[in-house]
Amino acid sequence: MSIDLSQFFEVFFEESFEGLDAMESELLNLTPGEADSETLNTIFRAAHSIKGGSGTFGFTSVSDFTHVLETLLDQIRQGQRQLEAQHVNLLLRSVDCLREMLQALQSEQEPELDTAKELQQQFEEILGLSEGEVAANENEASASPSQQAETNTYQILFKPHHHLFKTGNEPLFMLSDLGDLGSIEVEADLSAIPEIQNLQGDECFMSWKVFLQTEATQEQIKEVFEWVEDDADIDISLCGGLFSEQEPSAPAEPLEHDDAAPQSSENEPVAQATQAPASKGKANKAKSNESTSIRVGIDKIDSLINMVGELVITQSMLSQLGEQEVTENTLAALQEGLAQLAHNTRDLQENVMRIRMLPISFVFSRFPRLVRDISQKLGKQVELKILGEGTELDKTVMEKISDPMVHLVRNSLDHGLETPEQRKQSGKPEIGTVTLNAFHQGGNIVIEIMDDGRGLNTEKIREKAIANGLIDGNEELSDDDINELIFEPGFSTADEVSDISGRGVGMDVVRQNISSLSGSIEVVSTPGTGSTFTIRLPLTLAILDGQLVRIAEHTYIVPLITIVESLQIDTNKVSRVGKSLEVLRLRDEYIPILRLYQLFNHHDAITELDKALLVVVECDNQKVGLLVDDLLAQQQVVIKSLEANYQKVDGVSGATILGDGRVSLIVDIAGLTKMAGLKKPGAQEALIDAAALHEEQV
């Protein structure tokens, strides 16, 4: 019988990454010399779980490295060693190292071990032991002096439950671990194995009786089975004396320590584990490390089941109506039933979407470590405040917003906050503050990154923009308009390039990434007081509130969140700029008009401006008008990836299927402005100037 343990790898990796996150979080809460025992126990348990799991699956590089880390933690929590600042720093670096090793294994690649070897050497120097002595010391430290010299014989009854193999555990490894503790005799009980036609390859029907002669304590024996306490019946009792006088006829083969795979005989089937993915080497194509599962609260599952129940009842009612003779009463009942069906469908949709929603604390939790490391490197004192961490966001959006947020926080630490000396001279507290805040607003989530630093230097930004040709030297701009220039490609005011910020790229990429999520970003800054970057995002990328518009015979969907207003065009307020672009003066603004039928190459559309409608939309603080034939209904639509199912199309962000079965394309506002040439630096300002000049001449 062969069990493929690779089916359990993904669960192991996800739980290990969660354990590393817990370790990192708790390590940041430790104070050298005043270590809290519960915090240390939490860190130790996480490391112990990773060590045990990696050993079970054959990831020896991880288990060996975690072993020496665990030894130091155990000494500190037992009071044998006082926690020092260097210990915390070393343990944090070890968390990073373990995360990289696990990511490599998850991608079916051999992990790089240079960093692990360097850190392991530092651990051993602190412990004052060689590698071999570390393992020996761990076993000795767990037993009292009186117990170390005493030899006892234990009887161990080990009866796994049938589902044991499905949990990823292997009895062979546990019997082998018992063999490490002393001399053993093993008796296998095969009486529960069913007939061959009833045998299930992934179920365990064997049990074992083990006699163990050892100097180990009963607690140490229990540790062998700590992974299967809930998946097996285990009884450990002290027999006293030595083994029976009759020697076993042959040593138990499964307990031999060699590299050969255990062989199963006809009478004694043995479960055999598959090789770890690391054995496949670097030649294998790397897999995505992105999480492929999600943990859902039981309350959400219960609510979903209730909704399905309501849906089944409504469907049953409609089926009965369909079998009845058509009368006024049955038609009224049918309409009522369809209304109830629509209500149930909306509730079901909302409950399904809730399953994808996770608290944004999953993103915020990475920043305490980031702030600690960067502030130490910059010699700044920083307090991180986190608000609204329970605010929920779609898992897909959350994964994609993480990197832009990291960039913004790094900029706040590097450019925004002053050094303690500078803050003291300015009459500020020496400790600067970075605040992360999240809250719901309408159908969106708003994320704020705030700092109480020096604020943006508008004069320096203006000078840099003039030098780069982004604006004219005589142009009058407000402070807010000047601050918006930091989102232009390649713009940077940093005097020096560092590994933290100031490479001349970044903020434009941040805006692009946020725009790809149908979101927006804006900045408000006050010199000497601080800056606030505000990100607005839809709660989910799976459902979109859209406005259906008609162009010729085609129906498009404009995201409702981007629409400012819809209006009929007064041709007297339209100016032509260049050969083809038209601009509408709307109150105090100039709105470029994009004829969608031209961009999408449609015929038979309305071409006269006074007979068509203009939908004014806004993206990245830039307004444009979309010329359409007519406005249709507003509705929620399920977004389908056009790129995954067909190919990338400029000006289109996705597609959906309408109620009549037709495919409708979702308009990408940022893509349209780029197609029209309005994304070039200074294009909008030049457009406004040309339109104003044209009006004066008229």
Quick take:
The protein is α+β, with helices and mostly antiparallel strands. Helices cover 40% and strands 22% of the residues.
Give an account of the 3D structure:
- The structure is a single chain.
- This protein is of the alpha+beta class and 698 residues long.
- The protein is 40% helix and 22% strand.
- The protein contains 22 helices and 24 strands.
- Helix 1 packs antiparallel against helix 4 (85-106), helix 2 packs antiparallel against helix 3 and helix 4 packs antiparallel against helix 5.
- Residues 130-136, 140-149 and 241-288 have low confidence and may be disordered.
Based on CA inertia axes, which overall geometry fits? flat
Strand content: 15-25%
Number of helices: 22
Instruction: Report mean pLDDT, rounded to a whole number.
Output: 80
Uncertain residue segments? 130-136, 140-149, 241-288
The radius of gyration computed from the alpha-carbon positions, rounded to a whole number of angstroms, is: 33 Å
Largest sheet: 6 strands, mixed
Q: Strand arrangement, largest sheet?
A: 16-20-21-19-18-17
Q: Structural class, please? A: alpha+beta
Number of distinct beta strands: 24
What is the end-to-end distance? 89 Å
Helicity level = 25-40%
